């Protein structure tokens, strides 16, 4: 075999750079072509684990955005619109080769009713559910306060339920007034009122008293007023 046959073509660095630029230009041209010629399609909602009301809420939210192209759609803008719905816990906007631009969300899970028109999730976020009929769920406790105090009220409810668990009592209504007075109603009808001074200590002491010396009286007590520096007042049910 001759030296000529063995010799391979040699490329200069500038030639390799030119080929690279040309290849990249072709790729960009192809992407631009598909981007400009792709059909416009409506944004699709992934309905898994969503109620009909939640799907309808999402469809209404993205409707003003109109139909979008597969590559030309602004996914960040769609994500912002969807995330503005207070009941949406997290959202994911992505492209699916078969279905087009998709929106998938995880709704917030309520742990309590908040006021008469909103709900509260485990993170203390107050939100309005997609379905108005979902509010005032009878299986959940009812919390009332200013929205900025929601986290504090939720934490207080957890502490109270822990302290009164030995008595098999659970808070079903909790109100924190603007003057920081707490009104707690338990599932047996017991009503407790306590002020903002030494609130936790007073409530914990009451749970100890009801579990000890007053255990036999629990079923007879209608309400307890803890707004005293020394002791508390008990009102009994009418016999």
TrEMBL record:
Q: What is the lineage of its organism?
A: Bacteria, Pseudomonadati, Pseudomonadota, Gammaproteobacteria, Moraxellales
**Keyword Metal-binding recorded:** no
Q: Species name for this entry?
A: Moraxella pluranimalium
Q: Does the keyword Metal-binding apply?
A: no
Q: Where is the signal peptide?
A: none
Q: TM segments?
A: 16-34
Keywords of this entry: Cell cycle, Cell division, Cell inner membrane, Cell membrane, Membrane, Transmembrane, Transmembrane helix
Give the matching Pfam families. Answer: FtsQ_DivIB_C (PF03799)
Q: Name one GO biological process term.
A: cell septum assembly
What protein does this entry describe?
Answer: Cell division protein FtsQ
Question: Which ranges carry the Cell division protein FtsQ/DivIB C-terminal domain?
Answer: 115-227
């Amino acid at each position: 075999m001759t030296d000529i046959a063995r010799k391979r073509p040699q490329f200069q660095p500038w030639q390799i750079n030119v080929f690279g630029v040309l290849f990249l230009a072709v790729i960009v041209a192809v992407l631009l072509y598909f981007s400009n010629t792709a059909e416009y399609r409506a944004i699709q909602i992934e309905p898994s684990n969503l109620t009909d009301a939640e799907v309808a809420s999402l469809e209404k939210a993205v409707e003003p955005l109109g139909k979008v192209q597969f590559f030309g759609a602004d996914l960040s803008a769609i994500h912002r619109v969807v995330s503005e719905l207070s009941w949406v816990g997290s959202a994911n906007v992505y492209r699916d080769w078969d279905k087009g631009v998709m929106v998938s969300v995880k709704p917030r899970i309520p742990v309590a009713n908040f006021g008469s028109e909103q709900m509260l999730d485990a993170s203390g976020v107050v939100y309005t559910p997609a379905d108005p009929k979902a509010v005032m769920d009878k299986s959940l406790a009812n919390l009332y306060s200013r929205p900025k105090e929601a986290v504090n009220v939720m934490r207080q409810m957890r502490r109270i339920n822990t302290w009164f668990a030995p008595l098999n009592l659970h808070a079903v209504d909790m109100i924190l007034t603007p003057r920081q007075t707490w009104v707690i109603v338990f599932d047996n009808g017991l009503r407790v009122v306590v002020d903002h001074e030494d609130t936790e200590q007073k409530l914990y002491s009451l749970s100890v008293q009801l579990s000890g010396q007053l255990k036999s009286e629990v079923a007879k007590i209608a309400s307890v007023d803890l707004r005293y520096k020394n002791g508390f007042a008990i009102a009994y049910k009418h016999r």
